[in-house]
């Protein structure tokens, strides 16, 4: 039997971390955007402009990643509340505790996690 309470704490910790990361990324992005407007650089031809554009795209990618991660964490917390936490959403097999320790937000067993990643890659 999985110690759900322990994973709930892990997930809440991770959620707080993600929330503060999202907050700092959003302020980074808006300050970089403002700096770009102020300097009025041409992204295509100014070397400094392309660096800023690169930083912005990096920060946006990280922001998107964190947002997806946060969704997964919230979904896992909902499964805890619903009492379905720790079981694979596809085959309903109990997810090994070691796997939950590494990825407490995962809704899949090892087998179906790789299967769902494959289908994401294919689509
Ligand atoms: Zn499964």
Proportion of residues in extended strands = under 5%
Look at the structure and give the CATH class.
Answer: Mainly Alpha
Please state the average pLDDT score: 88
Q: Quick one: how many beta strands? A: 0
What is the gist of this entry?
This protein is mainly α. 74% of the residues lie in helices and 0% in strands.
Please write out the topology.
Layout (H helix, E strand, L loop, with lengths): L3 H36 L7 H36 L14 H6 L7 H13 L1
Helix pairs in contact: 1-2
The structure holds zinc ion.
The site of zinc ion has 8 residues, from helix 4.
GO molecular function: zinc ion binding
InterPro entries: DnaK_N, Znf_DskA_TraR
Protein name: DnaK suppressor protein
What does this 3D model show about the protein?
The chain is an all-alpha fold and 123 residues long. It has one domain (4-122): Four Helix Bundle (Hemerythrin (Met), subunit A) (Up-down Bundle). Helix content is 74%, strand content 0%. The protein is built from four helices and no strands. It starts with a helix and ends with a helix. The model has no long low-confidence stretch (mean pLDDT 88). It binds zinc ion. It holds the Pfam family zf-dskA_traR. It comes from Paenarthrobacter aurescens (strain TC1). Residues 83-111 form the Zinc finger DksA/TraR C4-type domain. One of its GO terms (molecular function) is zinc ion binding. This is DnaK suppressor protein.
Can you tag this structure with a few keywords?
mainly alpha, Four Helix Bundle (Hemerythrin (Met), subunit A), binds zinc ion
